[in-house]
Amino acid sequence: MDKSNKKNKTNKKYKKKNKISKKLDEGIPYILTKYSTEFDILNKEFRENKINTIVFEELSTQILLKIDSIETNGVDQIRTYRKELVKYINTILGEN
Questions:
Q1: Looking at residue 21, what is its pLDDT?
Q2: 59, 56, 63, 55: which is closest to 85 by C-alpha?
Q3: Are 64 and 42 in contact (CB under 8 A)?
Q4: Residue 33 to residues 4, 15, 30, 38: CA-CA distances in angstroms?
Q5: How far is residue 61 CA from its own chain's centroid?
Q6: pLDDT at site 59
Q7: How many whole angstroms separate alpha carbon 67 and alpha carbon 33?
Q8: 75 near 24, Cβ under 8 Å?
Q9: What is the reported pLDDT for 27?
Q10: Is 18-95 CATH 1.20.58?
């Protein structure tokens, strides 16, 4: 087998992981805690009347969509944290 054929073959074991997959290996992914913090800052700005209701709801929806795109890969801890975060955001949105 020549070198060109070796390079073309990909071995799943050595396949590079994407950023989210790497974070899933670390328990609760950093990205989920980042979105949680991002929403808390957004909520604080809304409470302080720095942003209006429409902007708050739109940005919150964007955060929810980002959270929804995170794969749990069957990890219960991640699924539970993600579910609680979605409930929390929806509860805050329901209050407004």
A1: 46
A2: 63
A3: no
A4: 43, 26, 5, 8
A5: 13
A6: 96
A7: 10
A8: yes
A9: 56
A10: yes
Q: What is the pLDDT of residue 15?
A: 45
Tell me how far apart the alpha carbons of residues 89 and 35 are, in angstroms, rounded to a whole number. 10
User: What pLDDT is stored for residue 20 in this prediction?
Assistant: 45
Q: Which two tokens stand for residue 65?
A: 């969509």
- Residue pair 28/78 in contact (Cβ under 8 Å)? The answer is yes
pLDDT of residue 39: 95
Q: Assign residue 49 a region (left: φ > 0; alpha: ψ between -120 and 50; beta: otherwise).
A: left
Token digits of residue 66: 């980002």
Instruction: Specify the DSSP class assigned to residue 51.
Output: S
In this prediction, the residues of the chain whose per-residue pLDDT falls under 50 are 7-8, 11-25
DSSP H helical ranges for 1-96: 3-8, 19-24, 30-47, 53-68, 76-95
Domain spans of the chain?
18-95
Task: Tell me which amino acid residue 22 is.
Answer: K
